Design the sequence.
């Protein structure tokens, strides 16, 4: 019985120990977790505190910035109010000044009209009473002033008339040229075909023939040789190698267009004589390759980079036979783009003639602009002469006024002034001075002046 109780007590004690150990482990684990949670919360609190400090500083800076901006806006508003007040005062002052100036203008205009009327009346009276010598001298002076102006006006009128006549003449010439253009081009093509058959086998003759056709196109284009285009101009490239393009077109803006004639008829002639489509196609492609070779050779000369020239970025490659160029372009539709990439433009007699007509029109416009500039210069000179004439007429008017004043002063000395000569002569006549003829008309004038003085 005792043993059983001891065993129970053992198990009870063991259970208590196990429970105590479990409780201790639980509390230790719980305390560790609480400590870890505390550290995390403390870290989070520190982070939040730092973020709060940052936000507080940002808020303070933002608040200070807003206060500064608000103060700046308030200052600008006050300044604007002052400016508005000043502008209102200036506006009132300007309005008052404008009213005053308007009144002054009206008064000056009225005074001018009054003086003008009085001057015209006085001038008429003076001219009637003045001597014939003064009138003749005045007319001579006015003629001397007006004659240069008349000559300028006549020159100006002649210039306008010549310009209009030139415009009409040029317009008629352009219509005639346009009517003849197709015929000339047809003749060129026929001549080209005819000459090509004659010189087909000689490369040197082919080159000379191409240059001859090019020169013919230039001659009928309306451009003036030596002034608007030159032939075979000798020059050198950067390395000193001699270059001599077939033609250089001179433009009004001190630019140049290079034209070089290239003739290749071997493959083209074989194409024309081909008996099968396969042969024709092969010869057509050979013709395209020959044209491309000419393009490459011409592009390699780099005419647009020469120091002696102010050339455009492109060079015209002249193919004198229209069908030859047409065959090359129809066989290879990209041939034109291929040439453009190498700064080469392919032209035939027709397209070149159209281009040259455009250049000729530019030169014509340049001449017309020079005529217009000359007209403007004449108009400016005419205005200057007119201004000088007005000034001299004003001086003449002042001199006439001075003469009129001098005349009035003489008449006052003679008739109306105190102790004038007429009064003294009449008194001497009354005192018995013998005279052959009385001053009857002068006496009446004296009486009239005295009545006006009394009134």
Sequence:
């Amino acid at each position: 019985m005792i043993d059983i109780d001891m065993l129970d007590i053992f198990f009870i004690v063991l259970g208590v120990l196990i429970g105590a150990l479990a409780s201790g482990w639980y509390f230790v684990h719980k305390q560790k977790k609480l400590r870890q949670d505390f550290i995390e919360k403390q870290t989070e609190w520190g982070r939040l505190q730092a973020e709060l400090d940052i936000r507080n500083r940002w808020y303070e800076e933002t608040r200070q910035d807003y206060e500064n901006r608000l103060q700046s806006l308030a200052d600008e508003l006050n300044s604007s109010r002052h400016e508005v007040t000043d502008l209102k005062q200036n506006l009132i002052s300007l309005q008052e000044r404008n009213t005053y100036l308007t009144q002054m203008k009206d008064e000056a205009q009225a005074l001018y009209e009054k003086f003008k009327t009085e001057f015209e009346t006085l001038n008429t009276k003076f001219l009637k009473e003045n001597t014939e010598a003064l009138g003749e001298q005045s007319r001579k002076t006015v003629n001397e002033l007006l004659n240069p102006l008349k000559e300028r006006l006549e020159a100006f009128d002649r210039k306008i008339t010549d310009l209009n006549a030139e415009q009409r003449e040029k317009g008629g010439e352009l219509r005639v040229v346009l009517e003849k253009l197709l015929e000339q081009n047809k003749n060129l093509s026929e001549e080209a075909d005819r000459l090509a058959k004659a010189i087909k086998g000689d490369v040197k003759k082919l080159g000379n023939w191409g240059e001859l056709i090019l020169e013919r196109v230039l001659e009928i284009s309306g451009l003036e040789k030596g002034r608007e285009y030159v032939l075979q101009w000798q020059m050198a490239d950067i390395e000193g190698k001699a270059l001599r393009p077939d033609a250089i077109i001179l433009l009004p803006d001190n630019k140049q267009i290079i034209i070089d004639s290239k003739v290749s008829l071997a493959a083209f002639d074989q194409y024309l004589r081909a008996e099968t489509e396969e042969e024709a196609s092969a010869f057509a492609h050979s013709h395209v390759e020959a044209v491309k070779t000419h393009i490459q050779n011409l592009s390699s000369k780099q005419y647009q980079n020469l120091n002696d020239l102010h050339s455009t970025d492109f060079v015209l490659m002249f193919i004198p036979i229209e069908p030859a160029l047409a065959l090359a372009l129809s066989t290879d539709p990209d041939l034109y783009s291929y040439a453009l990439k190498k700064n080469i433009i392919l032209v035939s007699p027709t397209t070149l003639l159209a281009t040259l007509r455009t250049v000729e029109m530019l030169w014509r416009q340049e001449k017309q602009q020079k005529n217009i500039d000359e007209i403007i210069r004449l108009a400016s000179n005419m205005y200057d002469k007119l201004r000088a004439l007005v000034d001299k007429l004003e001086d003449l008017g002042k001199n006439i006024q001075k003469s009129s004043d001098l005349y009035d002063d003489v008449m006052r000395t003679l008739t109306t002034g105190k102790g004038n000569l007429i009064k003294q002569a009449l008194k001497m006549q009354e005192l018995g001075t013998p005279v052959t003829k009385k001053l009857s008309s002068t006496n009446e004038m004296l009486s009239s002046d005295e009545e006006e003085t009394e009134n």
